[in-house]
Specification:
The complex is a heterodimer of chains A (about 300) and B (about 240). Chain A has helices spanning about 45-55, 70-75, 95-105, 115-120, 135-145, 165-180, 190-200, 215-225, 235-240, 265-275, 285-300; strands at about 5-15, 20-30, 35-40, 60-65, 80-85, 155, 185-190, 200-205, 210-215, 225-230, 245-250, 255-260, 280-285. Chain A has a 6-stranded mixed β-sheet with strand order 5-6-7-3-8-9, sandwiched between helices. In chain A, strands 11-12-10-13 form a 4-stranded antiparallel β-sheet. The two termini of chain A are about 35 Å apart. With about 300 residues, chain A is an alpha/beta fold. In chain A, about 35% of the residues lie in helices and about 30% in strands. Chain B is mainly α and about 240 residues long. Helices cover about 75% and strands about 0% of the residues of chain B. The chains are: A alpha/beta (about 300), B mainly alpha (about 240). The interface of A and B includes residues 55, 73 and 79 of A.
Chain lengths: ~300, ~240
């Protein structure tokens, strides 16, 4: 059995002065080959530490990491991993093409450099020096460096940070094309939308632990609650609570706030039943807040 | 050896203007500042050598040392910028990484030697090609401990500290090596003889009838090469330990 990625009982703390800050508090993840998995969580959830451990960049205090049944170092020395780290500048004084060529030369069976430039949308900037690129362009080049090894495992740590909406969309389209060629992909993000749209499975992390692990629809139902605000005088709370898709109701004078598990159904029902409702506003709950709720509930249940 | 990787490293060196100016331009400027005014001094401090000749060969060792130690800055900068983390995710071995770095150091060192030779000619120095080659050959051997020192420093200090660290070190090593004035006796002479920079200066004096290294010289250079290589290796491993 070849196996995919296996994390067992991973624990890692960082020491700053006299205080020990736990980053990851004992997590287990197993990822099948050819799966695309999103590691979703707010800042400080332990996503980057988990990724560093998978890539062999950090040594866990406890627990084991295996990639395709081997140690990370063996798999990396075999050139089977491509990664886009969260931080890190490009090597300066080389053109984009030269840098991609240089990286390609380090791997046993890289993709064709021109193909990679085209795939990642860096063909137009191939002759520019790396230090002259914008933030978004730099991210695309870093993606090119991650895919040029033709890796079996592609790891992306918050790859769309610093990209505008359009670039973000183009990026994920490219990533999906690439993943469809039978690669295992693990990416970290703090955008629920990205995880939902591009992963087969979401591993939800908060404060160094795994809070949930499952298909995007399931995770979305857990954290993707939205709220509807409306001005609607003189309606009793109990009637609003009975609306389909509504889980909680708050009243603030003439305005009502409906916390929804399904905001689409809730808004339809609201307008049907109470046509007088105005100043409608639908907002997604912040992921951070959703996590706090989830972890809070977990602690109570435990 | 990975030719593409080495070619890219060399290309980057040539394109980095600041590096080229400091590693190549600095020794030339110093040469004209020091040797220029003493152009007609025929017997500098009793050495039997004219000032332009003495300083040309002295600065040859200084320029070569300066060029090689400049690698430290490049390593520290790339580390601080996070590039080395990216490299750690490739199959590139430490050996290949250093080979490329040392090669760029040697390339810059040879360029510095050639430029000083041209600058010396401008001040009337005439040196036999054979002597120049003998000197250059021995200098290149004498640079080995400096290559190891550069790698060690590059992994020890951060980008913002590496400039002063290397600058200060070069200044001290140059004085104790006898770049600025001949060391004949006294405490400095004895300290100097235990340092690789002294023997680098002796290597450059081969061009002007020097004895070369003798047993002591070879031992000192070999000793420093081994000791600094061990330190460099350790610092590199600590910095890049793969899990």
């Amino acid at each position: 059995m070849a196996g995919g990625i296996e994390l067992r009982g991973l624990v890692k703390s960082y020491r700053t002065g006299d205080t020990v800050v736990p980053a990851v508090r004992g997590i287990d993840i197993s990822i099948e080959p050819r799966e695309t998995v999103a590691l979703l969580g707010p800042n400080g959830a332990g996503k980057s530490t988990t990724i560093d451990a998978i890539l062999g960049l950090t040594k866990p205090d406890e627990g084991t990491v295996s990639l395709f049944g081997q140690e990370p170092s063996a798999v990396i020395e075999g050139g089977r991993v491509g990664a886009m780290l969260q931080t890190g500048a490009l090597l300066r004084d080389l053109t984009v093409r030269e840098l991609v060529q240089m990286m390609a030369s380090l791997f046993p069976s890289p993709l064709d450099v021109e193909d990679v430039l085209e795939l990642t949308g860096t063909g137009a900037i191939a002759s520019q020096l790396t230090q002259k690129l914008s933030g978004g362009q730099t991210q695309r080049v870093r993606f090119a460096l991650a895919v040029v090894p033709d890796p079996e495992l592609l790891v992306l740590d918050e790859p769309t940070v610093g990209m505008d909406v359009e670039a973000r969309h183009a990026f994920w389209t490219t990533m999906r094309d690439f993943a469809e060629r039978g690669r295992t992909v693990l990416f970290a993000t703090h955008y629920l939308e990205e995880a939902d749209a591009y992963a087969d499975r979401i591993v939800l992390m908060a404060r160094g632990s795994i809070v949930a692990d499952g298909p995007p629809t399931e995770i979305k139902a857990m954290v993707g609650s939205r709220t509807i605000r409306a001005t609607l005088p003189n309606v009793p709370t109990s009637e609003l609570e009975r609306l389909p898709g509504v889980t909680a109701v708050e009243l603030h004078g003439e305005s009502v706030v409906l916390v929804c598990s399904d905001s689409d159904r809730a808004i339809r029902a609201l307008l049907e039943r109470f046509p007088a409702a105005r100043d409608l506003e639908i907002t997604g709950a912040g992921l951070e807040q959703a996590f706090l709720q989830l972890t809070g509930e977990e602690q109570l249940a435990a | 050896m990975n030719r593409t990787y080495v070619r890219c490293e060399l290309l980057r060196t040539v394109r980095n203007r600041r590096y080229v100016v400091f590693a190549l331009g600095f020794p030339i400027v110093l040469y004209f500042l020091i040797a220029g005014p003493n152009k007609n001094e025929d017997n500098l401090a009793g050495s039997g050598l004219s000032a332009p000749l003495y300083y040309m060969v002295g600065l040859a060792s200084f320029g070569a040392m300066n060029a090689m130690l400049a690698i430290a800055g490049r390593i520290a900068t790339e580390r601080t910028a996070g590039w080395n983390r990216q490299l750690r995710l490739t199959p590139l071995t430490g050996r290949d990484y250093f080979r490329a770095k040392i090669l760029t150091g040697y390339m810059t060192a040879v360029a510095a030697l050639l430029l000083l030779f041209v600058a010396g000619s401008a001040l009337g120095v005439r040196l036999d090609t054979g002597d120049w080659l003998k000197m250059t050959g021995l200098i290149l051997v004498g640079l080995v401990p400096f290559g190891a020192l550069a790698i060690w420093l590059g992994h020890l200090v951060t980008a913002d500290a590496v400039g002063p660290a290397v600058g200060g070190l070069v200044a001290v090593l140059a004085v104790l090596g006898g770049v600025w004035f001949p060391l004949k006796s006294g405490a400095l002479y004895h300290i100097g003889r235990a340092l690789p920079s002294y023997w680098l200066v002796q290597a450059s004096h081969v061009a002007v009838g020097g004895q070369g290294w003798g047993k002591t010289g070879w031992l000192v250079v070999a000793g420093w090469s081994i000791a600094l290589s061990i330190l460099a290796r350790r610092a590199y491993q600590r910095d890049t330990a793969r899990v």
